[in-house]
Amino acid sequence: MKTLKRIAAGILSTALLLGMTSCATKQTEASADANVDSAAAFTTVESGKLIMATNAFFPPYEYYEGEKIVGIDVEIATAVADKLGLELVIEDVEFDSIIAGVQSGKYDIGCAGMTVTEDRLKSVNFSTPYATGIQSIIVAADSEITDIDTLVNGDYKVGVQSGTTGDIYMSAPVEEGGVGEERIERFAKGNDAVIALTSGKISAVVIDNEPAKAFVAANASLKILETPYTVEDYAMAINKDNVALKDAINQALKELTDDGTIAAIVNKYIPAEG
């Protein structure tokens, strides 16, 4: 009798254990399914990777430190990739090829101190902004150019990095605040424009304030005009067809903003004044 009771108890215990295991298995599968659904909500060019196109000659947003590309954009993009469970892969390309590369599906994102413009929105979507930039004017320390009005209304040649916001704004007609195509000199890299300025080939360079400060700090014969040309927001370019990726990146940026990560990254490279 005791033997039968033991057998019955064993069968009951086994049944209970199997039931619990079954429930646990279903919960695990449900959890796994949820993770798969979340991961499948967006796609990337290469599975498990977030391919970022940049132009690594724009300090402190992206620049070379030895053979490694570092900077604000790199650290923010890395933090976003981590949030999405992806490995960040960086491609250093010409700035004016980034939009086309994102549009064609060659890169997942363009992250290069890039501002949102009406023209660019025709080709790609943009994430929510993650940083603010200022377009500044670099001139020779003894230049007769004292402000934007002097520059625009004079007959000065202006250097810009091809495809940048400075290029877009300055190539506009004078009545729209630019100097017109005939007075623009385009360069593949901002540093090349600065070299042309120091050699007297052009009279001014319009570029983001942070790289402008770095260029001027390295060359005592240059200065930045006190009046900024324009203030703008930086965002990541994303393929128009990949709305799910844009939404996922925006959510990651929100979390990184809320927890102070983005502010800490920016302050690391651009210490707050005062």
Please outline the helices and strands.
Elements: H1 2-39, E1 49-54, E2 57-58, E3 62-65, E4 68-70, H2 72-83, E5 87-92, H3 98-104, E6 109-110, H4 118-121, E7 124-126, E8 131-140, H5 148-153, E9 158-161, H6 165-170, E10 184-187, H7 190-198, E11 204-208, H8 209-217, E12 222-224, E13 230-234, E14 237-239, H9 243-258, H10 261-269
Parallel strand pairs: 1-5, 1-6, 9-10, 9-11
Antiparallel strand pairs: 2-3, 3-4, 6-14, 7-14, 8-11, 8-12, 8-13
Helix pairs in contact: 2-9, 2-10
Question: If you had to describe this structure to a student in words, what would you say it looks like?
Answer:
- The protein is an alpha/beta fold.
- The chain has two domains: 49-130 and 235-269, Periplasmic binding protein-like II (D-Maltodextrin-Binding Protein, domain 2, 3-Layer(aba) Sandwich), CATH 3.40.190.10; 133-232, Periplasmic binding protein-like II (D-Maltodextrin-Binding Protein, domain 2), CATH 3.40.190.
- Helices cover 42% and strands 22% of the residues.
- It contains ten helices and 14 strands.
- Strands 8, 9, 10, 11, 12 and 13 form a six-stranded mixed beta sheet that branches. The protein has a five-stranded mixed beta sheet with strand order 5-1-6-14-7, sandwiched between helices.
